[in-house]
Amino acid sequence: MTRPAGNESRSSDRRHEEELSALRRVAFLVAQGGTTAELGRLALEEAVSILGVPSGWFVRFEPGPMITVVASVNDDAGFTPGTHWPLDGESLSATIYHTGRPARIDDFSTLNGPIAARTRASGITSVSGVPITVEGALWGLICVGATAAELMPPDTEARLQEYTELVEIAIANAESRDRLQLLVDEHAALHRVAALVAQAAPAGEVYSVVSDEASVLLGLPSIEMVRYEAGGAAVVVIGSSGDHPFSVGGRWALDGPSVTKSVFDTGSPARIDDYRGIPGSLAEAVRRAGFYSAIGVPIVVEGATWGAIIAFSTVPDPIPEGAEHGLGLFTELVATAVANVQAHDDLRSLASEQAALRRVATLVAEGSDATEVFDAVCVETGRLLEAAAVNLSHYTADGINVTMAGWSLRDTHVPVGARFPVTPDTLGGEIVRTHAPARIDRWEGQSELAQLVRSRGIRSSVAAPVTVDGRLWGALVAASDREGGLPPDTELRLARFTDLIATAISNAATKAELIASRARIVSAGDEARRRIERNLHDGTQQRLIALGLDLQRIRAMLGDAERDAHEGLERAGADLESVLEDVRELSRGLHPPLLSRSGLLPPLRAIARRSPIPVEVDVDLRERPPAAIETALYYVVSEALTNAIRYSKAKSISVTVETDHGGVPFGIGLDGSRGTTNLHATVVDDGVGGAEMTEGSGLRGLADRVDALGGRFVLESSPGSGTRISIMLPVEPS
């Protein structure tokens, strides 16, 4: 066996000792827990020194596929740490990536690809490298390069392999530490968010903390959160502030490929590694904001995709694989926060709804006018649903939609009293056809009503039918001026008010029938009084006058000697005249003829002229009311005036009679026809006051008469403050 020469042996021993020292230094750093980049650089420095080559690189494989330079020594080729290079040509990295084995390239002159081109330009003529495998998976490689002036030792790959074993241990240790630290960081971040959720913090605060925690955990600069709306749109609930494409409150149509749309469509995590060249307004906004790639995970609330958390990257490289998992850790907590908020909102909404229903029900129970109930329903439902406008419509037998009541914040409701034909392109047409709730998601018809609704900024409407005694009467309609319209449960919430509307209408109809019946009784009584008055005037009064004339003729026939007879006839004539005056007074009390001939003003002035107290009479009527109302008003006012003259000890009395709005009719009847006008009369004195409306009193009788005609009688008479009697009587349209 030939022994090596002495010098050669000593040189080999020295080289071996140097290699052992280099390995010990690398092993020491591994034991100290140095970072992957530090270990890679140290291994390269030792390898380059031992092998006698000028340059070395430590790289990691990335999806794509591509490499990321982690560390380098004496790099003249531009493969600086942190740069990324695609494996789309021929190179040492591509060979090792595809084979998983050591490799060497001694000639770059015919190779293609960016790595080969950059290597040729640097003057490096040969490279040698070995793979780095961590936990059975190809992680990266370590390689060295030489120029034509240096020779690459033939055993380079084997000697590099000695370093890779230590590097692999170091990488495994570092990644274990990273995973452990990541787990600790994740746990701490989740604990902070969970604490907020447990404390029932406001949803906005939870969203903001989630955004901050996820950004730090993933090392990504921008985390957005969106809520999906019906119709395929996303609203930013956590994002950038100020003039930014994704500022809070921004609304985006899902009109092209994007992570936001993909999560909406699939309900699963999604990613886009490069937004360049992707069409659509959302993708354009992503590029405009300076983002290159994004990942997103769904927020699922009660089994439905409520929204998404989106993370964006501002660097051209794709977001690391597995980042979706880190982002997804927060979605369950966000979903819990959303569910808590929705439950709270639902409870608050239910309480508000019950309070609104209770207020309307109270009006119905108190027997309030149907128009008052209608107005209250429109106001309550409008505020409850946050609608732009609410209208109550009545559908007449001849196919007309009559607006009975309305409410809006910005004068967007259909005017009260408006009348439109019920056509197929309106809600009325659908409800008349189906007798069921209906919805118009976009007003596009050409009917007069559709054009009016659009002109007032209304986009969509929802209606619930109003059924009275088994028959369709109309509908309660809520409208929205927002894109997306009113929530899906709007029909149900409207329907809770329609029962109260139907009750109010039924009550009003019953009340109207009762008033009409009582008015007929009053009218019949008045007619009987007029008949008695006519009989007294045309019969009894005329016969008494004729009897007086007969007595005068008898007296003329008697001689002067019949003095006793003359005196007797004179006494009989005086008694007859007294009886005749009583009959006249009775006749006037039953029904003054002047009322029938001239209306209210003359007979009231006649009473005023006979009054010992000054009486001012002001009657402002554009036209005479129906006879029954006019007669009732006369008797009530004249009786109130007579009471004031007899008992008030006043110095002055005033009488005023007028109509609503100067006599102009207002309101809409329950059948959609023109509504009533109200007659108002007041009798005011400055007397002693203290009048009471006790059973059997004249005032009680006046109040009963007014009530019988569906009116209102109000007595105000504090002791020492005079008396005020206010009367309201409704006048049905002719």
Describe the structure.
- This protein has 734 residues and is α+β, with helices and mostly antiparallel strands.
- The protein folds into four domains: 18-178, Beta-Lactamase; 203-344, GAF domain (Beta-Lactamase), CATH 3.30.450.40; 364-499, Beta-Lactamase (2-Layer Sandwich), CATH 3.30.450; 594-731, Histidine kinase-like ATPase, C-terminal domain (Heat Shock Protein 90, 2-Layer Sandwich).
- The protein has 19 helices and 23 strands.
- The strands form four sheets. The chain has a six-stranded antiparallel sheet with strand order 3-2-1-6-5-4, sandwiched between helices.
- Helix 1 packs antiparallel against helix 2.
- The longest helix is centred in the last third of the chain and has 68 residues, at 490-557.
- Residues 1-13 and 662-667 have low confidence and may be disordered.
